[in-house]
Model the fold of this input.
Amino acid sequence: MPDRPTRTPSRETRRSTSVAAKSVRSGPPPDWLVGGDRRALAVERIHAAAAELIARHGMAGLNIDHVAAHAGCSRATVYRYVGGKSALREAVLTASTTRIAATIQRSIATLTGPDRVAAAILAALDAVRSDPVAVAFLAATTPQEVGTFLAGNPRLADAATTLTATADDPAAGQWIVRVVLSLLFWPASDPTTERTLVDRFVIPVVTR
Done:
């Protein structure tokens, strides 16, 4: 009996076999959260995605669908781990404030008295202007939000009091916050001028 001719697999068959083999080797897609506490990793990733979108597109870019897509998760996952838009916005702004405070603290660690107050104000200006989230918030904020979240925020006033070591005057922290805000919204022409304004018209009042 003559030998049966050997059939050569078609191109489509070879392609299907190759795909199946790759699927077996690779297995299921990797877990979205690997390597630690799932909740902490989820919150960190979602917050990072939100901060990046805010830095790119301003506060208007804080959309739950966009955040979920950028973080690589579902909309439901965002709500499960961090809540809605308001909670996410507050968390991102809190993280921004914490970064700024840490930067100021490093700048004034060895200073005391009037030098510390002046350095804290100027370091705050530099830190806020260098923080993408803070810049985006200030660019989109309304006068009401400035009053609620910034000028009238007791936590900011307390932080300013601590950083400038002016605890003997409870109103000093509130005044320093307003000085920083005024220079952020209406900056001087250059850093040297801002330093002069702080030295001449702020330090004598705060440290008298």
Summary: The mean pLDDT is 84. DSSP finds eleven helices and no strands in the chain.
